Structures are given as structure tokens and as C-alpha cells.
Amino acid sequence: MNALTPVPLSLLAPEIAVTLALAAALAVGMKSRPSNGLLARAFGALGVLAGLILFFWGPAYSDTWLLRSGGVARAWQVFFHLAALFFLAAHEARGERPVALLLGALLGMDLLAAANDLFALFIGLELMSLPLYLLVYGLRPDKRKLEAAVKYFFTGGAASGLFLFGLSVWYAETGTTALAPGGLPSPGTSLALALMGSAALFKIGAVPFHFWLPDVYEASEPELSAFMSTAVKAAGVLLLMLLSIGHSSFDPLGGSGAAFPNLGAWLPAVSAATMTYGNLMALRQRSVRRLLAFSSIAHAGVLLAALWVWQDGGHGTELSTLWFYLGAYLFMNTGAFLFLALSGISEVEQLKGYGARAPWPAAFFALMLFSLGGVPPTAGFLAKFYVIWDLLKGSGAWLAAAVALNSLLGLGYYLSLVRTMTLDEPGPRTPDGSFCPSAAAGLVLLLCAAASLLGFIPEAREWLFTLLTL
Amino acid sequence: MTEAAFLLCGAGAVVFAALALFQRTLYGSALCLLGVLLQVAGAYFLAGARLLGLLQVLVYAGAVMVLLVIAVMSSPPRLARPFAGTPPAWLGWLALLLPFAELLAFLRLAGPADGAPWRWTPGLETQTASLLFGAYAPLTEAVGLLVLVASLSILREEP
Amino acid sequence: MQTAALVLFAAPVSALLLGFFVFRRWRPEKTHWPMLLSCAAVTAASLWMCVRIHDGFIPDNVWELPVYRWACAGSFVLEFGLRVDGLSAAVLGMVSLVSTLIHLYAVGYMAEDRSFNRFFLYFHFFFLSMVGLLVADNYLQMYVFWEGVGLASFLLIGFWYEKASARAAAWKAFLTNRIGDLGFMLAVFLLLSSLGTVRFTDVFARLGDLPHGTLYAVAFLLFMGAAAKSAQFPLHVWLPDAMEGPTPVSALMHAATMVTAGVFLMARSMPLLREVPGVLAMIALVGLMTSLGAAAVAATRKDLKRVLAYSTVSQLGLMMVAIGTGNLFGAVFHLITHGFFKALLFLCAGSVIHALHESLNGAPTASVDDAGGLARKLPVTFGAFLIGALALSGIPPLAGFFSKDNILEGVHATGSLGLYLLSLLVAAGSSVYIFRLLFLAFLGERPEQRGPKAHAHEPGFRMKVPILALAVFSAAAGTLGEPLAKMLGAAAPHLDLSISFAALGAAAAGILLAWWAAMRRPSFDWKWRRAQPELERILDDDFGWQSFTAACAGRVAAFSRRLSDSWEKRSWDPFTESLADTAVGLGENLTLLSRGALNEYLWWIVVGASVLAGAVTLCF
Amino acid sequence: MLLTWLWLAPALAMIVVWAMPSRGLARGTALLFSLGLFAYSLWLLAPYSEGLLHLEELGVAGPLGIRYRLSVDGIALSLCWLSALLTVLSLAASWKADVPNAFWASFLGLEAALMGVFCARDLFYFYLFWDIALIPMFFIIGLWGSSGRRKASLKFVLYTFLGSLSLLIGLLALVTLHHQATGVWTWDMSALEKTPIAGRAALWTYAALALGFAVKIPVFPLHNWLPDAHTEAPAAGSVMLAGSMLKMGLFGFLRVLLPVFPDLSAAALPVLGGLGVVNILYGALCAMAQSDLKRLVAFTSVSHLGFCLVGLFSLTAAGIAGASLQMLNHGLSTGGLFLLVGMLYERAHRRGLNDFGELASRTPIFAFFFAFILLSSIGLPGLNGFVGETMCLAGMAKASLPLTALGLIGTVLAAAYGLPAFQAVFWAPAGPGSASPGLADLDLRERLILWTLVALILWLGLYPRPMLELLEPAASALAQR
Amino acid sequence: MISPAWVWAISGSLFILGAAFLVLRRQLIAMVIGLELMINAANLNIVYYAARRGDAAGLAVAFLVIAAAAAEAVVGLSLILALLRSDEAAETDRLQELAD
Q1: What whole-number distance in Å separates Cα of residue C593 and Cα of residue C600?
Q2: pLDDT per position as a tens digit, B58-99
Q3: Do D123 and D192 touch, CB atoms closer than 8 A?
Q4: Contact at 8 Å (CB) between C7 and C96?
Q5: Is residue C126 one of the residues assigned to a domain?
Q6: Which of A99, C53, D103, D151 keeps 20 to 30 A from E80, CA to CA?
Q7: Beta partners for A139?
Q8: What pTM value is reported for the model?
Q9: What is the ipTM of this complex?
Q10: CB contact (8 A) between residue C599 and residue B84
Q11: What is the number of domains present in chain B?
């Protein structure tokens, strides 16, 4: 591949569509109108949707020096676009700025998925992170949001720094920033990968890089937390996958590489620590948002376990397991956060007796919680089921046991939320039953509910995989 | 010889950085940072990346420093402890000792691959420019977007 | 035969159903009619069976009828059926006859009780269970009715459940019987697992297939069951307390339905027991020991029914001695005669209680202190009691003489002089205690005795008839020896004069001793015993055994409380629950890692990345 | 579709009942529906033949080897009957409760899950239904239980979920081991039975599965979720919990462990049979010390299920058939006892042993039913409990005499806990502050419910052969493995 | 010829010093300085090797990194300014409201 060959523009059509939407949103904001937000969201959703369609319009697989399109990348991009759509459907701010920022972050993610090159990865990472710092800050900031944004910025900046330094080491060692190491792995490349891997773990929210996460999720808008807990986490997983594959023409369907040979040694430990920590911390939370934040840390641990099996390789189903887990998590966690956004609940206290005030929203939330807890017949159960199965197929029996025990811990707090909602008498702080989602948000709720009931279909993972690799 | 000068510039940068760390005032730290940035720019010059050195001076010593100065000036003029209490300082130093020790161990045990000799490549910067607007164009664009997005932070929030 | 067998079940079952569904609601005070009719029908049927068997109409003296397959799984098959042979027919005849009379008696005795209907339901159920037990054709079926007997005894002993003592006695009876049943069931399981069948015919035919150890175990375990039902040491503890029930219940239990079941089981298993002389010897010894001990206790009790109860224990011991000496005929013969005269004695005691009931404050039993000089007030009862006492003592020509004599002959035939002498002692002892009771209650007129009220009177007609009938049977049952022997296929009994005279002498000596102690030197009962509270206590305690078993039961109860409180409620349950708290507590401790300080977050990132980098690079 | 309806119909009915406009309508519909389903489940005997009813399959097995497969053998069919019957009875028993639609719907949901468990032939669906059953029970305990329900509901779900997770790992390991041995992915029970698996991994798998099932039964020392759950659940909930849900664990042993690991099961006899005996004795001893009627009955449950375990692990046709029968018996008698205690609680709002007295004369009908069902529960011959216990122990006698003897001690202890409790409530004089005065006797509805039970108890006690003939083919097949 | 190990030592030290700012300093502005130091350390490495190998791609990377770093600084400093404007000192120990 000639280094000087420019990437054909046609391959970038989806990204261009999103960029245009970004521009349109900004253009909307030139004049101050009350309908700015809605208009911008409409443009944004249009762009994201157009991008989604264009992904499938383009070639099934193409690989240039810097960027790829189609293939596995597309699956991730579809995921990111869905998460963005959910955010746009749920977010009801007035201005156009959040839309523009979100589209920026989405572009970063798209770039991340398509990147064939470490530097492209870095730019994708930055483009994803910077708008998020500002999104957390929010349109009408309060002290807590500002604090969260500052914390996020500095920890995220440190992570970027680590990534960049890792990149420089990689470049020093191999003479290229391409993901293909070209030659045997050396201590230098290992060091580089460890530094870059730390940045990925930071995005995933793995122990001990997770401390920013609960603060940020607690302070920011619930729909933003939903976006971050799904898309950003997925981006982190993707980053880690790319690092461990390290192959320019990588097609994980065909097998895995070994650029990060020691992933096997430490990833299970990090995974177990992460899920245990997340669950133990979640058990004692009084704020629902913070609780869900810690729960997302716990889920990150399970994701890492799935990632480890995938990297361990050889069983042919691991990537689909990972995707299914992410997919199920996208729906159930979005649903849970969306419930918080629409009902205006943030403290566990406020949930008391909510089931009596608003049975249907409460039932919806309970469904999401059961799904997060991994109780059949929900998609969350199926996701854990696949992960444990894959772990047992390999040599990860102890990690499988850890995942199982952790889902018990998890059920402990999910279920006590359900209990608070249904068993307790309504308290003075329980909001009334008003719960009126917009049409778009209602659609998302329905989607989440429907997707969470997938547990009856044991082959759902295979279906999803076929769908994503059309 | 140039190589030695490069190293000297680098060492200067490290010295300035260390100085910056221990400055009690933000003002002092910012000045020291300027020193670091200039030293690094000098190193770029010496490495033959003159355009890059220039950019370093313009962007960093120019734009970023301006921002820093504005921020420093906006903060209330009071003399405060430079170091945070949590975690305790000794724990913080301990944590920093770890990567230092690792760095030394790494250099001693593994060391970087000792590749080709220092080599001047004429036309490198032209190549760089064509690359930036050729194959790297999407990335350049992305960085442009990045700057655009960053600029959104300057927007005033609505009243 | 088939019709008769049908009557055996159909009559009591339909009587019970009628009593439960019809009479209970509509005419509770008439409940006894279906029961009496059913008793009569069963008696007729069983007597007819006796005749058929005695007259040799039944080949081999065994008539069997498979009824239905109860349960089956794989090779495990259990059939229910009927088996009527000489043994069961004879016992059945006695049981139904005595039961009928006691039913009749109970009509009068319970007439004023407000739970008249309930009483007869239980009472008849008792009877039904006993009948079923007698005609069962296999061990498991026998066990089914065996437990029915136990349940009925529980309900009836606790019939007057307002009293704590009645409740406790009922429970004690059931529990003790269950302990014995444990042995019975284990024997059943042993037979099932080694032979695959529990049918008497099959088991006895295939005894040779059983290993010797199994045979011993089965025999021993069966005896364990029998010991509980027939109140043999060490499982006899429930019987004295069982006096808490109404007197007809005691009569039925002691004469016909309950305690005979154990002896019957032993008699039934005789072919099996004969294979294991060791167990036989043990049975004889246990029987003798029980017999002696019970006689000693009986000779010193003051409570009418209690004396009679211990006398039953003692007589049952004698029957066990007969079993132990392989004397099947003697055991069954004594069982039958004992059934008659013990029922008679109890019914008389019932009459006494009935006569005294005003001074008893509703207590179901009476002490000799309450009685005294009853002979004048209750001449008929006294006469009947005298007949019963003579029969029990073994004075010819009354029933007890023949059966007891036969047992003693059997013992003598074993050649063990000690056993023989001790058995003679038992015979003497039985006349001591029963005549002591007779003298004290009916003839004694000590100032310490309260005596009957002026208007105390004989019971009514319905109670007198059974007493008189039983008196006749007690007097004449000795003649049943010959036909019984024919039915059992045993050699006809003959009197060995030397042994007869020895027995007679022992009995006479016993009566004299009783007369001397109760009438001539009453200081024994009224002074000396009171001066020896320690001895009194020991005797009351069955030589310490009662309190020992109570202590054991207390231990188990305490253990269960400890298990439930200290372990389950205070240790294990809190421990499992504390696991949840531990998890929450761990989360509490984990918060120490971060207190919301940004520098700390960054510190962790630096440390994490360093550790990761170090690990990866060094592990490389 | 014959069997599919068995779980699908109550699941749909659950939604219908939920959506009913009024409470009364919901109640009526639910009862009617459960009655219909019971009739339907009885009718299933018609197409049933040769020990197995209808393999129902849907689609083809995908790459995971999972396929929707239902079928019932005699044992499963009898458990379906039991679940359907108990649902009817518990709904009828709660007739007077003023509860929202969700109450009635929960029971139908529970019924659906139970039917699914008993019918599933594919381990995936087996597990799916297994876990789904937890959710309605969580709400039944949590929403309509007594004062301690908040804690008890969570304890119940978490404790049993621990078992479920162990079960899940065990099932996955089993399927994976089977794949390693044969190269085929399958979750089909009948296929898994064909390839014996041995070795260390098999042992771990066995342990995981056994743990999963044991929690549900529950086996000592994992039993202590049960007393709390029973005590706090509403009467109808206790009935379903004891009557049907606990059977899931035993059914699991029977369906999965015994056929797939015959050798390991034989080797596990001392452990699991021993635990069965411990269950018998421990449950009985603890029951002796209880002063709360419901708690007492809960501990008797522990004891009774010990007999089932003993029967199962005798690995003889008699023992297994006896254990299956004992499952039914336990459902009837313990279910009946819970119903009775519930009726008492409904009237007096108390259920301490010493809160009552003299009930035998005050409420004779109630006393009769209580005595009858209690006697069935403590294994009086002629009633159903005896048949089951006898067959279990008779089976065990072939395998291990000491265990049989120890198990028999449980029958003695049964008398030691059952009768004093009966005496305290029904015979003892009512003390001051007793709840006895003014208690109304049973009404016609309650009597009808209890007569049903009494009739079945008598039938199974006196003439169990038809039922045993239904259970026997499956039991013999298991015993021969 | 001087060993490249020296370059590594310098860039590594610079990077660790940057991290030291983040871990130790309490003024947010100083922490921004730390971030810049980290980025510069990486860039120094890249430029050294790019120059040594005559690799235009490395230089292009360095170019874009400078721009990205500037963008990051903009965002960071804007957040700090927002903090300062809401009458707060821009110091870490004032940011402990969100905590467990």
C-alpha cells in the first residue's frame, strides 16, 4: 500500500454524512430560536441514520493504509450509531451544542472503528473524548457537572497522554505507527502496548482506572450516562481488541494475532477485580445513578472476561459473544438510564413505592434491572450465559465462577431496587406517576423492552452476528 | 555533535520541567513551562524538523501560553500550597518512583533498538506536508474537527 | 370364608362411615348402634371362621385370599391379602368377642360424655385396626394396621384431652410405639431387601435363603416392635400411663386390641423365631424380667387401674416367656384366657370408678384409698372381680389355671430350673397383687380409706351384662385348650400334675400372703410404705426406668432446641445472612480507596499503568 | 403443541388476568383458568402411552445445539398434575383475599414456569424455566407476605439464585464436556444420556449440578432460606413453594444427574444419600423445637424431602418410584398443612403453637382436617406419606442398611414433632390471651378444598398402584442405568 | 554516536514529571501544564526517531499532535475558567462533592 495514496472519499461517505449533519446543527445554532434543539436533533438524527445506511451501502470490506471500512469495523460503527441515535432521541436540551458535540464524539468513534493505524486511533480517541468532556459539562452547568467534567478531563487527559507516549514508544521501536508490528514483539512494543492498553482500560472503566466513572455518571444527564456507558465502553473494548490484534488487515473472524502476548496473564485478574469491585461498591449506593455507574463497572469486568476469551481464541464464537453482550447491554442500560431521565428519579429513596404510583414505568425499569442482573429470560441472562459458556470452553473455569458469583452480587442490588420500588410504601420524596416520553424516546423504550426479552431465543447471538457481518 | 546538542536541549527541558513542578506560584510554573516548550522547539530544530519547531513556538509558546496566562490571571491571587494533600505526598512520590525505576530498569535490561545512524533527509518537510494533505488528509480533517469541537467550549452558555 | 372375611372389614368400615357421616350430624347419641351391630357381625364371622378351621374344612388350616396389588415398582411388589389360619382365627374370635362386650359396656359407661360419637368412632377404629392386623397376610400389611392401633390408642388415651396428663400419656404411648415400630419396619426392609417379599407364607418357606445374621437381625427387630406394643421392658413405659383414657379403653387395650398385638406378632413369626434360638432365649429372659419387675411394682400400687396395668405387663411377660420357650400354644392360650379375665377385671374396675365417681372428681381412675368395703355396695362387681382374680391367679378350674399351667410346663420342659422357679415366682406374684387389690378395695375397711358414698350403686344393665358374660368366659375358657390346640395344630395339652400342684401352691401362697399383708397386717400398706418414700418413689418409677426414659426424651428435646436455637437460629442462619452484610461491608471498606479526590484518581492511573507496564515488560 | 400449551396457556392467562378491569374478574378468571388447565393436564393421560408423552420439537438445533424440545414421562406428568392442582387449590384458598390482579397473575406465571421445568427436554429451556420461576415467587413473597417479607423475599431469591448459578455452570460444563467427548453440541437430555462422561472434570460438573439442585430441595446445610421464605410467604405462596417448587430440585436430580452420571451417582450415594438422612433428622429435630406453626411445617418439609433424596440415591426402581411418589405426597400433605395454617392465620392473624388451644372442640371440622393431613405428613400407614417413605427406605435398604435405619429414626421424630404440635393447638386448654375464642370453623369453600386433598391422600395411601404404574417405567429406566 | 537510550531517558523523565504534576499538584492550571509536558515528551520521542529515520509520517504525526494538544488545552482551560467564574478556586481539594 503506497503511503501517499489518499483514502478514496467514497469510503468516507458515512463519516461525511455525519460531518455534514454536524455542520447543519451548528448552522442551525447561528440564530437563536426556541426550536433550535429540536431542529438540530432532527438534523443530527438524519445524519446518523444516513451514516448507518451508507455503511451498508459501501463495499463489504476495504482496507487502505490508514482506514478500513466494512467488515468488522462496520459492526462497531453500527453499534456507535445506534447509541448516538438513542441519545438524540432522549436528549431534550434546547440548544444545538449538545448535538454538535455528540456528532463530534460519534465521528471519533467511527474513526476508532475504522482505524488501521495507531495514530488514527489516537485522533479518534481524542475526537471522541474532547466533546464528551464538554457534554458532561453540559448546557446549563451546575457545580456538580463542572466538577465531574473537570475530573473527567484530567483523568482522560492522563489517559490520552499515556496512549500518546505508548504510541511514541511503539513508533520508536517499530518505525511505523501502523498496527502491523512487522517483526517479533519486543520489550519495547510490550511497554507501548501496556501504556496504550491502560488508556483503553480507562475508557472501559476497569479497575484501577475507573475512579472518574461514578462521579461522571452521577453528575451528567442520564441519557449521556447511557451513551457513555455503552458507546464509550464499547470503544474502549474495541481499542483493546485492536491493540491485542495488531494486524493491519485484521479480520477477527479469521483468527486472532498475538501482538499483546501477555494479555492472557493479566486480563483475567483485571476482569475479576473490576466486576467484584463494581458490584461491591454498587451494593451500598444510595443514588440510583451512581449505583448504575458501579454496575456498569461490573459489566465492564464481564466484558473484559469475554474479551479475554476472544483473545484466547480458537472457539469461533467469542467475537459474537462480545458483540451480543455489548448489544444487550446497550439496550438494557439505555433503558435503565432513560427511565431515570424520564421519571426524574436519582435517589434510591425516591423509588419507594414507585410501582404503585406508576406501574408500567416501574415494570419497565424492573425488566431492565432483571436484564442487567442476568435473570432469564432476558437478554442480559443470555449475554452472561454466552460469556460463561465461552469461559468454560477454554481454561477460564475460575473466571466463569467469578462471573457467576458476581452476577449473584449484582442481583442483590438490582433486586433490592425492584423491592424498593414494589414492596415499600410511597415516601414523601417519591415522584408522582407522570412519565411522558416523547415519541422518539417512547420508541427507544419499546425497543429496549423488546430487546431485553430476547432470552427465549438461544441463537440470538448467531442472529446478531449474521446481521452485523452481512 | 548535533545529536549532543539535541540531547542537551532535551536535558534542559527536563530541568525546566522539574523546576516547574516545584514552583509555588502558577506564574512560576507557567514560565518554566515556557522554558520547556522552547527547549523542545530547539530540539526539533536540531533534529531537522524546523517547521515543526516553528509550529511548536507558535502554537505552544504563543497560543497555549496565552490561554494559560489568561487562566492564571483569572485565578484569585493568593499564595497556596502547591501540592495536594490527598494522596499524601510521600505516597505520590512513591508512585512516581515506580515508573522511574521501571524506566531505568527498562533502559538497562532491554534498551531501545539501536537502529540506523542519525541521518539527514532532504525534503523531509515537503514530504511531510504532502503527506498531511494526501494520505493523512482524513486525519488532518479530523484534527480540524477536533479544534472545531474544542472551540465549542468557548461558546457562552445561554442565559 | 370369603363372605366372613368380607364381613370382617365391611362391617366396621361401614359402621365407621355411618357413624362419621350420618350419626355425627344427626343422632350422635345413637352412634353406638352401628358399632354394636358391626361388632356382632364380626364376632359371628370370626367365630364361624374358628369353627370352620377347627372342623378342618380348610386345607392345611390356612386360608389365604390375595386382595389387590398395593404397590409395585420394578422387582418391588407388595400385595395385600387376607390370611386366616388357626392362630388368627382363634385370636380373632377372642378379640371380637371381648370387644363386643366392651363396646356394650362402653355404651353405659360413656353415656353421659358429650363426645359420645367421637368416642365410638375412635373405639371402633381401634377394633377395626386390630381385626385388620390379625388377618393380614404379610408383615407390611400387618404394620399398616399395627400403626392404626397405635393411632387409635393415641386418640383414646388422650380422649379427655383437657387434662395435661392425658395428653402426655397419649403422646408417650404413640412415641414409644413408634420406637418399636422402627424395629418392625427395619425388619420389614431387611426381609424386603433380602427376600423381596414379606408375605408370611413366602417368608417362612424361604427362611433357608436368609443368611444367619439377617435372620437374627430380623427376629430381634421384630421383637423390638412386639416389645413396644406388648409393653415389654424396656419399652413398657407407656402402658401404666395409658390409664388416662376412659376405662373401657383400658379394658380394650389390655385385653383385646393393643397389647395382644405384640404377642400375636411373635406368635405369627414363630416359624422364623424357631430358627434363631439365641433370640428366643433373649425373648424368654426379657419376658421373665418384665414379668417379675411388673409383678413387684403391681404388688405395691394403690391405684386400681395401675395395678391392673402392671398385671398386664406381667402377664404379657409370661406370654413372652412362653414364646421364648417355643411354646406357641401356651402363649396363644394364655393370650386368650388373659383377654377374658383381664377385660373382666378392668370392667369391674370401671364399675368401681363409676360407683365412686362422685368422690373422684372426674379422675379416670381410683385408688384403694378412695375405695374400701366395696363388696357390700357392689356385690355383683365383687363377685365378678373375684372370679377374674381367681382366674388370674391360676386357681382351677378357672381359665387362667390351664393356660398358665401350660406355660409353666413349657418352661419346665426346657430343663432350666432357674427359669422355672422364677416363672413360679411370677405365678405367685400375680396372685399376691391381684388379691391384695381385691382385699383392699372390696373388703378392707380401714379408717384411712374414704370408702364409697352411701348411694354408690352397681352399674346399670348395659354394664352389668358384659361383666357377667366375661365372668362366665373367664371361668370357662379353660376348656378352650383342646380346640385351640387343634386349630394351631399343636399337641393337645395335658396336665402334668406335679407342675400343676406347684403352680397351685404358688398361687395359694400368694393369696395367703396378700391376705396377710392386706388384712392381717395392714401396717404394710398404711404405715410401712409411707415410711419409705424413697422405696415408694423407686417403685413408682419402675425402678428408675421411667425417669430415665423421661430424661432421654428431655435430652432429645433439649438437643433439638439447641440445634434450632443455638445452631440454626443463632449461628448458621445469621452466618449465611452475614455474608450479604460482609459484601456490603467490603464495599464500605473499598470506599477508602477513593475519597473523591482528583489527585488520588490520577495516582491510581499512574500506579495502574506502571504496574501494568512493569508486569508486561518484565514478564516478556 | 399438546405440551406447549401446558406452559404457554398459563403464561397467556397471566397477561389476560393482569389486564382484567376489576379484581373480582381477575380472581374468577384465574381460578377458572387454573381449573381448566388442571383438567387439561389430566386429559394428557389420554395421549400418553409407553412411558413417554410426545416429543415436541420446534425448529432445528442451531450451532449451539439448543432446540425447543418438550416431553413428559410419568414422573414429569405427575408433577405437572401436582402443580396444576396446587395452583387451583391455592387460588381457591386465597379467594377472600383482597389483592390486586397481579396476585392472581403471579400464580399463573409461576405455574407456567413450573410446567416448563417439568416438561423441558432441552437443558437450556429447562434452565430458563427454572430461573423464571423465581420471579413470580419473589413478588408473591414480597408483596403479599407477612411482616418479614421484605427480607425474606430477597433472601429467597438470592439464596436460590446461588444454586441456579451453580446449576448453570454445571449445565454448561456438561454440554462442553459432551462436546469434547463426541464433537457434537447438544443440549438434548436424551442425547446427553447416551455418552457417559468421566474424569475429574465430570466430578466437578457433577458437584456443580448437585449443588444447584441441592439448594432448591433444599439439602442441609443449604436449607436455611426455606424456613424464612415459608414463614413469610402468604399461605398460597407457601403451598406452591413447598408443593411444587421444591420438587424442581429433586426433579433435576432425577432428570439430569441420575441419567447422565449413573456411575458418579452410585458413588455419591454415601454423600447425597447421607445428606438425605441428615435432612430427615435435622428437619425433624428442628421442627420439634419450633413454636411457629408455619415454621414447623417448613422444617417438616426439609425432613420429608430428605426421604425423597434417600429414595433417589438408592438407585433402585422402588426407591426412585417411591421418591417420585413422595414428591407428590409431600405436595399434597405439606401443601395441605400450609393451607390449613393459612386458614388459621386468616382468622386469628396469629400462628404460634401456644396462641391457640381447645380448637378440637371449638372448630372440630378444622381439627379433623388438620389431624388427617398431619397424620399423612408424619407417615401414618394407610395414608399417602407412608407409601412414599416406605418405598424410599425400602429402596435404600438394598443399597445401605445403616442409612435406612437412620432414616427410619425420622419417622419416630415425626411423631415427636407432629403430635405435640397438634396437642398444643387442638387439645391443650386455651390460655389467657389465646386466639381460640370466637374462631369460626371452616366454610364450604375451604372444606371443598380440603376434601379434595383428603380424597387424594386416601387414594394414594390405600391404592397407590395406578400412580406407581405411571411412575414406574421412568423409575425402572433410571434404576437400570 | 550517542545511544538513543539517552533520548528515552529524557522523554521518559519528561513524561513522568508531567505525571508528577497530575499526581502532586493541586492547582488545576498546573495540572494542565503537566498534561502538556506529557504530550511534549511523547512528541520529542516521535520527532527524534522520525528525524533519525527520515520518516515523513512521523513528522506528520508530530504536527497533528501539536494541534490536538492545543485543542485539549483549550478544553481544559475553558473548564478551569468556568470553575473560576463560578467563584471557586481552581484547585483539586475543592472538587470533592462527588464521592462515595
Answers
A1: 8
A2: 888 888 888 888 888 888 776 667 888 778 888 888 989 999
A3: yes
A4: no
A5: no
A6: A99
A7: none
A8: 0.90
A9: 0.91
A10: yes
A11: 2
